[in-house]
Amino acid sequence: MYMRLLGYPADKISILTTYNGQKHLIRDVLTQRCVNNPLIGHPHKVTTVDRYQGQQNDIILLSLVKTRAVGHLRDVRRLVVAMSRARLGLYVFARVSLFQNCFELTPAFRQLVQKPTKLWLAPNEVWPATRKVGEQPEASPLVIEDMPHMATFVYEFYQAKLSALEASHKKSSEKPYESKTDAVGEEPPHHHVVHRISEHPAESDSDEDEEGKEEKEKEKEKEEEKEKEKEKEEEKEKEKGDDKEN
Q1: What is the spatial distance between Cα 223 and Cα 37, in angstroms, rounded to a whole number?
Q2: Is the Cα dihedral 22, 84, 3, 45 positive or negative?
Q3: CA–CA separation, 28 vs 25, rounded Å?
Q4: Which of 89, 141, 143, 161 is the most exposed place for a label (fewest CB within 10 A)?
């Protein structure tokens, strides 16, 4: 969960264990808590070391959790397979005191215990990492003392991530400008001029055009009346001419 919250892709993380029982338990926990969570999801694979031979991934979380005896992990070949599956990061969960006393595994665990046996975290560094190998982190690392400490930290880290996402979503959903003035600056002073907006570009924008139309129509009607009168007079003169001939 912690690595997914930092942005590491789920397909770059695999979880390995040495027992089928642990494999099924881890799968059940992931199904209940992570699979349906879009921030977490399911890792690339959760399987046993024996079934992961010939495969690799960037990040390997290796569970060597045992309570009393080392058991079949005494086989060095199995340990070599488990330790060589990671390209970038290998995280081993085990009881150091139990494996240190195993003669067959002493050379391998001697190298492991040269590194810090507690988990050191840099919560401010997200994926993809920009700090080069060998460089010290800008902030002091967080040292995880035990599993309850890790559980508490991841829960608080998860809640902080949710709060940040909610704040970001709320900010992005707000209007970009609170008012029109914020968007275009101060508006120029108005002179209270009222403009008539035509519903269509072909329509007139003033009453003067309408009056001009009415006058034209009246003139047209007068001309038509004059033509009619002229025709009537011509007909009358024609009739008088016919009477004189008769």
Answers
A1: 88
A2: negative
A3: 5
A4: 143
